[in-house]
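Two quick folds needed for the group meeting slides. Do the first one here.
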Amino acid sequence: MPSMLPPSLAPHTCILPSQDLVDLLASSSLPPLPQILQSFSPLPQVTTRTTTLTPVPHPTFALRFSDLVEIEEGCREDEEQRAARTLDWISARISRRCAKWVEDWERVGGAAVETERNANLRTPWWDEVRHCIEGDHIPSRIEGWNHPVAVIVAVSTMSPNPLQALAQLHARPPEFPSWVDGNQLRYTLIIHPKNSALSDEEAGALFNAVKKQYGLHTFLLPLELPSPPPPPVPVPLQPPRLPRNPQSTTQTPEIAPLSPGAIPTLPGGLNTLRMGEQDIQQTARFVREFVAMSLVPWMEKCAVEWNENFSSTRRLPSRLFSSTRRLFGSATPSPTPTHGQNSSISSVTSRTRSGSNSSIASVGSGPPPPPQQRRLAEFATTLGDLKLAINVWETIRKDGKGGSEILPLLLSPSPAVQLHVSHALQVVMTSNTHSSAVAQVRALAYAVRWEMGCHPPDFIGNAEEPPSAVLLAHAAYLSVRKKARRRAALWYLFAANRLEKSGIKPLTMYFLRRAHDLYKVSPEKSLSPSFWDSEGMDVGSQAGFDAIVPGIEHALGRLHYTTGDVRRAVRFFLTLLQGASSPEQAVLSLGTSNGSNLELSKATMSDKVFLEDFRVSFQHLKDTSGPNFDLSDLKLPVTFCDVRHTRLRLPGDSVGGDPDLWESREDTWRTYWKSQGKESLQSTGKAAVNEPFWVDLVMHNPLDVDISLANLTIIIKESTAESSGPSVDFVEVEVIDELVLGAKETQTIPLSVRAKRPSTLFITQASYSFLNLLPSSESLAVRGRRLQDTPIQRQSKVYAPDVYIKALVEDASQRLSVDFVDDGRLVLEHGECMHMRLWVSNIGTEAINDIWIVAGPDDEYCIDDGDVADSVPPPAFEVFTSSNSLAQRLPQRVPLDKLLGSPLAPGQSFEFALTLHANTVGDQELSMAVVFRQKERPTFHSIRVMRSFEVRPLLSVASAYGPSNDLDELFSLDLDIRSVPAAATIEISQVTTMSPTWACASRAKRRIGTLLPGQAVHLPLGAQPWDQRSGGDETYKFALGKLEEVLQGSDTDLSHPPPLVLRCDHAVSTSVLPSTMQSFLHQGRRNNAARHIAAVHRNLPHHLYPAIFPLYHPHAVDVVIFWEIPSEGRSGHILVTGTTLGAGHGDLNGIIQEAEEMKVKRNMYAETQIERSSILEAIRASEWNSETNPVVLTVQGSGAVVEHDFSSSSCHIPVTLSLRNYSLTRPAKYTFKLPPQTPASGVSDMAAPSWIGRLTYRGTLKPLEHLLLRPTLHATQPDTYTLGDWRLEIEVGDEVPSTGVHGWRTQYRYVDGPSTAAPITVVDVSSE
């Protein structure tokens, strides 16, 4: 229980004064008697007793005094009408005083005091509502706290006949309705002023007569009441009272209604009383005697008697009978306790009600007064008998007749308090959608009482009157003191939303500012500081409630604009331009469990509304302030420039392409020229004097509304300049008059820049006029990288200086322009050779002597130098030497001496042609860097050229090879050429084979000719070893040595393989390959080999491929298919690689085995065991370590039919077997065995042969040697015979110099047998 009950729960005493007393007080400059007596409340040090006679000391005992006539008029007024007037009256008082309140509150720092939990400072608006609610003394039908407990009849001795005046007042009964409790203490007060006509003895006689006639509850109050009145004395403030209803005309016939006069006040708003010290002491003595000797004993007596009645109804039999009736029903209702009458208590036991007012009904027909149990609970609460009070209130609550509104004040803090509060509110608030005025006033009264005992929750519903808003604001105030900032901000927001509808702007703006400040405070995050550092996030940058804050700021801006503070309104509207919320946040409704909500409509949360409000307010501010008003405090909160995507674009950068690709081109040139000279290549990222370059400014509109930016341009600083003024004067910068960006739109705006002298320029800012109203600028700097070089830098966030877009402007002495003559869409067929022309112009001021072309490693092209090949008769085959290196192609020099005969002078132009070979299907790009310089200049310059093209598939080629059955050739190579269905008619003009070892010839007896779409053609080729081959053994030894170094983990030197001689055979017709074609074939072979090696040997460094692998395998055979499309004028060739003829002997197996068993040091080739194993397996399976059986046995004449006359003898058939060694380097020993008699097999239908004569053959085959074996087959009857289960044993090795039998070293052994049947049919031709 709180230390002191709220004043609204104090005993209520009504005063009925005589007219002479009213006149006396008015003539003495004193207020009416109720106000005089109210100035002495609360009364200190009062002791009461419980029903068990236990004393209860009260440090203060509150009292309430009212005029009886005013209370009677208030009871006659309709409760709903009076409640509505109460709300309007409170609203008017708040509206009239709120501006001064806010000013004083902010001056004393009230917002800061809110955060102190023990602060005693109270908000003035809540005090105003609390005083207005506490000043309501009109009785209510719901509760009995305002029902009068005593009526003081007061007269003065200034009356001609005081005794008669008292008789008239006592004869007048209180005109209360029937629902007002009639148990009241009647008290008589006689005021005897000093200037009275009666002497003190006469006044004493009058007092004794009155006491004898009306009882002991009588008091004589002598007063001085000097004239003139004494100086005013400060007294406690009077609670404000609702003015009387102007529509009420009912008056008491005997006594005119009292008009509440203005309370005398001193400067500063203090309440005063013009009474002397002796009169104050006498009045205080009367008040104490009235309370201690009359009011409190009378209330204690009532409580004792009512408690007896209450206890009797709660005894066991009565409770059982009551439960029986409640459970099983009864036609007789339970008796309701009524107020008992006691003659010892001087009270009014009977009253007559009369009058013409229809609102006062008779006793029998009107509503009943409050139940006796409730009055008992109220009296016990007032007297401090908490045990009895809580017991009775609980009983009343269980019976469903109230009590929940008082129990929160009496009980100790517990969860039950919240339940009582909730139940009390549910009873009062009968509707969630609309709250009646009576319900709102009743809820406010509860809140005022509960402020001392519990935290006031939201229980006002949807009421929009200022008192409910102030109550919410007070709930927010208490929430802040309890550190519940988010809840407090929500209450403030609700309060402001309701006050705004009432037109109370000063207090509305203050509540909105408080809600805004509370929402801006981020909640404490109990996370480690290293978390934010690891996530790259700033603790203060985490935004929350971003959908609520804009609504608050928009409301504040509108209020400031309507109140005339336009500059502050502009700042708020400008702050709102931060980008729209997500669609689901466009309409925000904040609600609570009881239905209270705050709706921020879509228009409130729309960027369009924010932007329009800013435009209107800023234009108004500009018109009223003049053209030179200060804009330094108006900064756009949103940026439109996308700095990270803004780029500097030079004239040569229009070709596009990946920056890494162009950097690789420059690296290729520097690597090439490093061995040629010391001249350096200047970066291409430079502009020329008087030549425009562009800043591609990427602009993004983050708002959900179209915006316009006027006078868009960039600010450029020179590297040597220190001022922060506008752009340098020698630079011309383009200005965009107006740019319109749609909602969420992104545009790239090119701004041209032209410098008049060489310099280093920095693009620092972008400037524009937002909506052609607010000049703004944005920095184009990008934050530097995070530094982690020192321990301090690693422990804290340290960044390098900001990075600006940098433009280098140089003298335009060496400038070159290179473009393709035909820049249309280019579509090529696979393998097509396209002649392309480039136009070169010298746009500089000096002559250019040297021009090089630097292309990619996969680009196949050739520069046409204009030379015409000599016409010579074509030989049978061609021979040319290959460098046999996988190294990338070197930059190609443009032959200016042949094309022009002199350097390229300034202003001079020329054309040159290059031929491009489309070697890969799909979308391709030819990216070339053109490097040039003037003779003897120390630097090179470069320009970029790019051409995109599409390559479509044309031919599909499949090849198959194997040992040939023809004794005149070693291998057969079959080509299957097929045209794709979508291709045009193709002419195969030539098929050429290239090999360092093999000479190939066509076995076809006709030309291939024309291929229709989807048609296929077969071309058989035969291969024989070339007697004049050269370089193959050296190439093989080079590759084996390099691979051995890799396997052993030693460092590989960067030597290149030896050159290799290639033989070219033309299968269709004799011709001569031009030098350009030889270059294309070399590039194609290099690209295919590089891709194959990169796919197989993934764990080897790519830059070491040329130093490990030769371009050609010595046994490789490449096929080139030349084609033409006469109808389209297209021609080209397709290179087919991957064919290797000849037997291999696994020359690396021994080295691989040693590498697997040895422990090598960790180096670049053996970072992990997995990588090492991958390298070993790749080399084991490569063509350099292939291993096959070199000896092949074939049956000559297989399937032959032999005729014989079996009538004379059996048949002896010689069978020819061919035995050939396909190895080019190793001899082989063989052992061929035939079984004398082959057992019959049930699997085959052919007969088993019988052999006669020699059955075992032994010998040695030299490399590429072949011989014939002729065993004899013995046939005893006609049949089809198979060769049976022969066995061939092969030993591959070397002959070592030795005189003994051990002159042979075997490396591999193979065992072979029949794989096919090879049948021979014998037919009997004997005559019958």
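Then this one, please, same format:
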Amino acid sequence: MNKPVQPQHEDLRISQLYSYHILDTEEEEEFDFITDMAAKICDTKYATVTLVDRERQWFKSRHGIEATETPVSLSICATAIKTSHDFFEVPNIKIDPRFRDIPPVLGDPDIVFYASYPLITEDGYALGALCVADDKEKSLTQEQRKGLKSLSAQAMRLLELRKRNFELKQNQTYYHTLIENTHGSPYRSLDDENQTFVFLTKGFEIITGHPVADFLNNPQKSFKDIIHHEDLKRVMAVKAEAIRENKTWELQYRINHSSGFLKWIDERGKTFYDELTNKIYIDGIILDISFRKNEEALFKNIFDNSQGLICIHDFEGKIIKINVAAAESLGYELDQVIGKNLREFLNEYDYPMIERYMSEIKNAGRHKGILRLKSKSGTNKYWAYDNSVAEFGGIKDMIVTNSVDITDKVRMEKTLKATEERLHLIAQTIDDAYYVYNVNQGKYEYFSPNSEKVIGVNLDFFSGGKNFNDTFVHEEDKLKCKEAAKNLLNGTAFNIEYRIVLDGQVRWLNEKAFPVVSQNSKETRYAGRVTDVTQRKNIQFELENTKEILEQASKTARVGAWEVDLIEKKIHWSDMMKEIHAVPEDFQLEFDNSLSFFKKGFNRNKASEALDLLIKKQKQTDQELLIVDANGKEKWIRLIGKAEYKMGSCIRLYGTVQDVNDIRKKTSELIKTKQQLESILSELEDVVWAFKLPTYKMLFVTPSVERFFGVNSNECMQDPEFWTQFIYEEDRYIIEEIGLELEENNGYEKEHRIVTKDGSIRWVCHIGKVIFDSNDTPIRLDIKMSDVTKDKEFEKQLIAETNRANAASKSKSDFLANMSHEIRTPLNGVIGFTDLLLKSDLSHLQQQYADNANTAGKSLLNLINDILDFSKIEAGKLDLEMVESDLHEILYETLDIIKYPAGQKNLEIILDIPPTLPNQFLIDPLRLKQILINLLNNAIKFTEKGNVTLQVVPEFTVENNCKLHFSVIDTGIGISEEQQKKLFKAFSQADNSTTRKFGGTGLGLTISNLLAEKMGSHINVKSEEGKGSTFYFTVNTEVIVTQSRNELANKAVKRVLFVDDNAEVRSITKKHLESWGLECYTAGNGFEAFKHLTGNLDFDLALIDYHMPYVDGIQVISQIRKELKLDASMLPIFIMSYYSDGEKLKTPMIKLKINQNISKPLNYADLFDEIENLNQDVAQNQQPQPLQEQKLSGEFTVLVAEDISMNMLLLKTLLGNILHKVRVIECGNGQIAVEKYLAHDVDLIFMDVHMPEMDGLNATQNIRKIEAKTGKHVPIVALTAGALKEDQQKCFEAGMDDFLTKPIHPASLKSVLEKHLELKDSGDHAIDQESNSERKLSFNKVKLMQLIDNYQPLLKELLITSRDLIKKIEAIKSMLTNLDREGVKANAHYIRGASQSMAFDVLAELSEAMEMSALKAKEETLVEIFGKLESEWSRLDKIILEEITNIADE
């Protein structure tokens, strides 16, 4: 059932329903009486008072029904109240499409009839309905309706009464609680002299202390008696005036409480005239405000007499009230302050502060701080305040300040702060920490500010009672520190150095402490200073380490020290000195022989000369000389000498001797190596240089720099960036790029141009690399620059050659495209007209001629396709389209294509696939089929007898990956090894005789192998002359669906006999049959079949091959029927034959009652279905013939632009054959096509691409420009003989929607027509029962008849009623004139709902578009949609009238 349409204001209706507080209440007799009466009056089995909320329909009362509620989606009542606010009746629910499928109709209770009157509130909302129902079809009489309506009104009155009672009880409870809980006492009194009370509450007694009974209805006792005598006259005068003028009064006055105390009363009242009694009453309330009054008095006393500074001001800063203390603090009288603005008492530089104060207290409600004010004398006053926002005197948002004058405190604090800052500054400038320790109190009284920094310990430690010595002092120094502390107690100061350990780190401290005795106090204190000497100690340790290191270094570097005392004439040598000279440790050199170890001659003379200069002229010496050690070995040493003078005379010589013998050897070797390297570098063509990092000091540059740049190498050594001056102007950006790549990658490689000194431009390859040391620190940049000008020139030539090759390739493609077009255009006529000719009545000879011509045309087309495919692959323009594909379907379609030529040669085609082969794989179905067809056609072509097998073997790898092994095996002529080498070469065959005998271009295998290579494989061949060939390849793919066929559901077939002379076919088919759960027996001929059939086994089905040697299948079946007496009911039989055998088997099949003719090669999917659907009672007398092709229904106008009259005639003929009714507009070129398009309303355009004057591409572009303005779009299909992908792309870019390649195949044409034409009805009305269920129809009669169970009377009534929709359409037209968008939307909604119910598909769609666009779309858009809607109604109305007439005639 359709969900009830939600009316507007549904939320308000639900809200009204909830306000009655009726849902889920107990049963009530009053409502039960109404349902009982309704059932009796209407003579029905069921009656309910039903209320409907969002989710359910709930029964307040029910007669004959057990359920208390049902979901609203299954509610008839919900539909009733949302459809009509009046009587609602359904005589027979079962034929009403709105309710036919809901449970109350289908189940228990079995409701057939339903009627109701809604329960409508005073505001017009339907809460539910009084419903009656029965299990028989009926209709209420006028009297019954009248009675039901009265009962419905009575039920609604009960609901209203119940609601008012509920509200009254709520109000009574509310007012009672209000009166009891209020702090006042309401009253009512007479308007007499004493104003006698007639109503009082207990609150009166609480307020006055007097019993209520003393005053209530007692004219002798007046409230005036307890009013304070000072207030009585005023109170009575105000009340008398208000009563006289009929106004309200508000009074505050005192009364005498029964206890003798005074109480403050707030009274408010007004006179009330009672129309029923014709009396005037005084109504009022008295409130006890004593507490508030007392608080006000107390506040005033505190405010006036408080020593605190109290001020009240608003958010503008205006001072409302201030106490005396606050005014005097500023030196003013009260009247000089009140009314002034707070800002008048501020210094100008404090204005921003007061603005921030106002903002913050407004947001937070409270604020604390110190306010600086300017006193009358001009001095600053400081108030510490704690302010809050409060209500004062009935005025909200007042700021009450509570302050204290802290001026003196602030001034004192400033003085102290200045003193502290000075002391703090002094303490901070001293690196030491100072402390004072009170011995008597056992605590530290003072630490200087930097103490924590110096000592390294948080100062809180010293107040925690722990011992510093035990906690932090190094273990080796603890005893020293304890002894010092002990001596200090005895009055002895100390100065010690010790270590402390903090977080594992050692720190050295120097501490000095001494006792301090106060003259005025008996307390003893220690004063101490602590200095961090860690750095000094570390330096000391480092110096000691350095000395040790130097001594070690001396040994390592073989440096010895010497000294000559010229006064004492003594020579001192270090141990290393003795080791260098190879003398013993106790050796002592004599003063007179001091130069004896220097080699005689030049070296000893140089040493003597150096020492003389050192003594006489203080000239230091540093030179390398040869010595001869004690063992007679020559050594190179470095002699360094200095002199010490005293009073102008040299008194001492000292210095070092270093053993540099090894260094001299290595230096010599390095010099030799350097010379060799310089020799090599001088021959280099490339320039290599390096500079040091980070100093950018040039280290070297090869001599080739002079040849390379024409610049001197010495100049380059002065400037590490010498190369930048030679960069070609347009390439100077390369400098910045090199810098960036060095930063990011520590190297670069660039190609750019340079201009040498002689002005020549050269291309260079420029490479640089940063060199790092062992610590990853960059130390050097190595650079090489090579001349690549010749390489660049070669590259330029290569590009030119490539461009020429590409141009040649394009010329070839253009030639192929033109060749394709020129050949396909006449082929279009040849194949098209011979196809038509073959379908006409021809003599046998004519049939043969036409068939030969058609075959020749198609062969030529295949040849062109092969050439184009080869060209695409060769040019790399053929791409695979990997899609999810049904492999079984590909294989069967492939075999369907080749089975006819195989049948003509009586060749057995065998499909060998395992039963478990999955269906869905990720492959290119078109190209796989192309390979298989080519291989199979070749096998058939070269096989004269025997069979051709297509074998597929899956090999599953990981997850869903799979290898598919394809093999095509034949029993043909075979191929020699020599011939196999030529197989995959383009335009070649095994030998020339093959071409002469079998024909072909020699491209087929080449193309197939190239396609296989694109799939990641290649085609292999195994063959032997005279024994046949096997072509095989493998495709890597992905399994999408692994499910294979299940067992047969037809349990009537259990045992099958399969008869075929081919053992391979028997083996393969047996596996498939057994995988379906069948028991299969096989036979190789009729004799074996008879043995099985005459045995003890009963067979449910026999499959028998027609082509068997000696005794064919028909003969075997004839013997089975006649001799074994097994008719079709006892043994159903399928005969298996070639496709070409169908005609000659018709008569035998009828005669022998053969159930089915199964074409070979066997399609196992079809065989499965045939066995599954086997009906043993009905024999199929002939091979199933395809249904006669039906013309596509509808009436269309098609524009055809074609300059060749033959092609025009062919396309017109094909259109007439496919479409039921078509008008063809003929155009000879693109210009005429554009003109005809403008003049006619066409449904589809066929546009030839190549035409004179204006071609199809330009014509399409012109049409699309026109449509851009009109908003219209007519599909355009390209007609071209160009078969290349580029041709198709040009058509789509021009704006065409589809593409047909010449010659045009009828099936392709039909597919295009079905895709682009909205098929219309070709019969008497717009119903097309054969059309696709997804198509939109003006009147979908099939759908409506299904909804109403094919009930013709109801159909007629619905159709008659539907014609009222014209009123809604006219209403929309009127509303569009006034642009009443809400009205348009509402009426469109109505039409949509009705159209959906009536199966007016197109009208429903258009009205929905109108509804969705009504509120926001432009006016012209709405007018356009309405035009379509009005046009559709005009068409639909004719259909409706015709349908009504047809029903009447029936």
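Slide caption for protein two: Residues 789-838 form the longest helix (50 residues).
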